[in-house]
Amino acid sequence: AIACSTAWVVYRLPDIYESSTLIVVTPSTLPTSVVPTVTEDTITRQLSGITQVVTSRSSLEPLVVRFDLYRTERSRGEPMENVIDLMRRDIKVEVNTSRNEITNGFNITYRGRDPKTTQAVTAALASKYIDEQTKSTINSTTSAKQFIENQARQAKDELDAIDLKRLDFMQQNVGNLPT
Known about the structure:
The protein is of the alpha+beta class. It has 6 helices and 3 strands; from the N terminus they run αβααααββα. A 3-stranded antiparallel beta sheet has the order 1-3-2. A hairpin with an 8-residue loop joins strand 2 (91-96) and strand 3. It starts with a helix and ends in a 7-residue tail after the last helix.
């Protein structure tokens, strides 16, 4: 009787599928004199910031609608905020330190009831992470470019001022300068 009831309960449990993807973080190829090295702490902070953006309601709600996730809960009339909380619970992001405790990427895992949908949601989440990182990189690159352009312009202005002083000195002392 116990074996039959256990088998019946196990049979009635819903299937849960888990899809995971690894996003590799590659270090910059630029010299450290131009771009500062990215530390473990920096990567963790960036990942935390991106996670907050990706797991926001405005980011997850379209996924819930597009993939028709949590259909049972939504049909019961659960508020969307509760559905989003359920989705956040099913998403797991963890830093991958596979070699010598050095961060070389992070895993994104999503658990769901349909294998194809679970895989599609994981791919969509990974895409969102990559898009947010790309936006962040573009913003930091743009600000670095502006900084370098400002530094170059300032150095050019200083050189032009020195050159003007040299020309003025040469014009004032034309007869006294050696040939």
